[in-house]
Amino acid sequence: MALIVKNIIGQKRYMDSLRLMRISNKAAALEGVEKVSVVMATVLNKEILKEVGLLVAEGAGASNDDMIVAVAVEDESRIQAVLDFIEEEMKREGERIKDMAGYAPKSLESALGMMPQANLCLISVPGQYAKAEAMKALKKGLHVFLFSDNVTIEGELELKKYAEEQGLLVMGPGCGTAIINGVGLAFANVVKKGPVGIVAAAGTGLQEVSALLSNAGVGVSHGFGTGGRDLSDKIGGITTKQCLRILEEDSETEVIVLISKPPGPNTVQELSKYLARMRKPVVLNFIGLSSAIEGGDKVFITKTLEGAALRAVSLIRNEALKEKVFTEEMSKVLQLAESEYKKFNGKQRYVRGLYSGGTVCSESTLILADFVPAVTSNMPPRAELKMKDTKVSVAHALVDLGDEEFTVGRAHPMIDPFVRKQRFLQEARDMETAVILLDVVLGYGSHPDMAGVLADTIIEAKSLKEKEGGYLSVVASVIGTEEDPQKRSEQEKKLLDCGVVIMPSNAQAARMAALIATRGEIKNRL
Amino acid sequence: MASKKELIESANKKATERIIAARPFVVDVKPAIEAVAGMKENLVCHAGPPLELDEMVPSFKMAIFGGIMWEGWAKTPEEAERLIRDGKVILEPNHHHNGIGTMYGITTPSMPVFVIEDKVHGNRATANIREGTVKALRYGCWDENVKRKLGWNRDVLGPIIGFALRECGGVDMVPLMGKALHMGDDGHNENRAANLLFSLQLIPYILKSDYSKETIKDVVDWMNTDSRFVSTAEMAACKAITLAAHNIENCSVMTTMCRNGTYTGIRVSGLGDQWFKAPAPAVNLLFFPGYGPKDATNDCGDSCVTEVAGIGALAMAAAPSMVQFVGGKVADAINYTKEMYEITTMKNTNWTIPYMDFEGCPIGIDIIKVVKTGMTPHINTSIGHILPNFGQVGAGMTRAPLKCFQDALEAFAKAVGV
Amino acid sequence: MVKEAELIHQPMKVINIGIDSFIESLKEQGVEVIHVDWHPTAGGDRRLIDILDKLEL
Question: Could you tell me the pTM of the whole model?
Answer without folding.
Answer: 0.81
